[in-house]
Design goal:
alpha+beta; ten-stranded mixed β-sheet; 4 helices; 10 strands; about 35% strand; globular
């Protein structure tokens, strides 16, 4: 199954790059016990995090670095829902019901999703030292002028997801733009 989708991406003239990611829905808790469910995102190749995601502040668009200690939340989740600031601890509920404490290293602009972006080091803290198997692909494609959509697209990303239970791939367009709505 894995090689099938990888072979398709490798063979496509329109795909300029692709990356393997791990995504999972997790529940976060602040010090007051308030909780929020978000999508955890980690990369099989950590260097690809900044290729597929833009980490920056909403005000001033100051870049947020992504390194081996990164624990970055989207702004709405961090500030509005959990009341967190950079440097604050919070807990992630693990699949066995236990909780692991992480410290927030960045708050990124994002208007659509509630996400927790983790470095491999931070991911290993949640999984007892092993990296989870990737279950999502993001692929960047060229956006030729002749096929350009009404909204500028530079580049277009496609997301392919699978689960062990379904053993099938679902690929859907996901446009990355250079605007603040990215």
């Amino acid at each position: 199954m894995e090689n099938g989708v990888i072979d398709v991406l490798d063979a496509s003239a329109d795909v300029t790059s692709f990356g393997r990611f791990y995504t999972k829905s997790v529940t976060l808790y602040n010090a007051e016990g308030e909780k929020e469910t978000v999508s955890l995102v980690a990369a099989a190749d950590e260097s690809q995090m900044t290729e597929y995601f833009t980490f920056r502040t909403r005000q001033g668009h100051k870049a947020i670095s992504f390194d081996d200690s990164s624990v970055i939340l989207t702004e709405k989740t961090a500030e509005k829902l959990l009341g967190l600031a950079v440097g604050d601890p919070f807990e992630v509920e693990l699949s066995d019901g236990s909780r692991q404490t992480l410290t927030l290293t960045g708050i990124t602009e994002n208007y659509v999703f509630t996400r927790l972006y983790l470095s491999q080091t931070s991911s290993r803290r949640l999984t007892g030292g092993t990296l989870p198997a990737w279950n999502t692909l993001y692929a960047q494609t060229s956006c030729p002028d002749t096929d350009a959509p009404a909204t500028p697209c530079a580049p277009t990303c496609w997301r392919a997801t699978t689960s062990a239970a379904s053993a099938s791939w679902r690929i859907r367009p996901k446009c990355s733009t250079t605007s603040s709505a990215a």
